Amino acid sequence: MSTWKDKVRPKWSLRGVDVWWTENDLTAGRRIVEHKYPRQDVQGTEDMGRAPRRFTLSGELFGDDLFDQQDRLLTAVESKGPAKLVHPYMGEIMVVVGQDGLNLRYSTKDGGLITVRLTCVRYDSTAQSAHPKSSPNTAILTEAEADALRARLDDYIDDNLQLDGVASWVQESAVAAFDTLQALPTWTIARLAAPDLIAAGSRAVANGLGSLVENIDGLAAIPFAQRALTLASNAAAMVPASLVGATANRTLALANTVVLARGLSGLALSAAAQAAARAVPESAQAAEALMGSVSDALTEAMWDADDGVYQAMAKARAAVVTHLTETATALPQRTIWTPTTPTPVMTAAHALYGDSPAMVLRGIEDLTARNGICHPLFPETGEALEVLSHV
Description:
The protein has 391 residues and is an alpha+beta fold. The protein is built from twelve helices and eleven strands. A hairpin with a 2-residue loop joins strand 1 and strand 2 (17-27).
């Protein structure tokens, strides 16, 4: 016959970090405000609603990997957002850990043992939406700044590309520079007729350069951004080392090459910023990596930009950083997990992703695909596995 002892777990855990428990406390009640009146022998009370349930759990850490357990527990406590607590009696509960919520005691009398005391409050998701707060849509704002950068670059090319009333060979030099730039991408696109664009004027050239970027199609947002950044770097490298020619016409030809190269580079960066706004990274690290690459590329380009383009690039960079920083906070962390004994993937998925059947199946698929496990029942012992921490 099953007894209460059979239902008690020997450990409690926070974000998947196990602790052998020794005792636990629960406090609950109502939030009561006392009203006291001067010179009167009566007092009143007012019920302000249910008080949050507060859990206090004590336990111990020990073993050969004692300090690894300590570090994982500290990371679990200091991570942002609600956490899953597996309570010895009550099972899975979402909680938040506040300041001074974790106490670790070390003693010379108990070598190899850390005494743990955790205090946390139950997280009520319904309460978080009771008073909704409006917040800006950072993805839309980022796309708007990318569009503004694109428009400013079109004006930069239109204002600075000198094609009217110049020697024919200066126009031919611009045609050659445009053809060189449109040969940079490594993906297949229809080549544009550079002589027709040059003859049509600087605005047509700006539109043509923009189409070189727009033809990076058929890709998800992150690969698109990576190719756009590569194009931006390659185009910037086409800027001549010397901007002064032997004659005025040669100087003019060099100046046109600079406008074309920097214009295409900037347009590619605006496309990368727009792709960053549309990207759906799988992990916080992926979002941070995308943010770093786009932000760094914009920062590098700003050094040589004119005032108008500089300001537009600065706003686009700030929007990308804000958006992807906010995105990263809501994404799972990519971590490394190393089983010490032969562990089937299903068992690992239960330990890492919880007991929900949907999460377990998702975990099995993620573990096998991400780590190239040939047979889900027999991953290699001691093999470091890359996992996504969803809690």
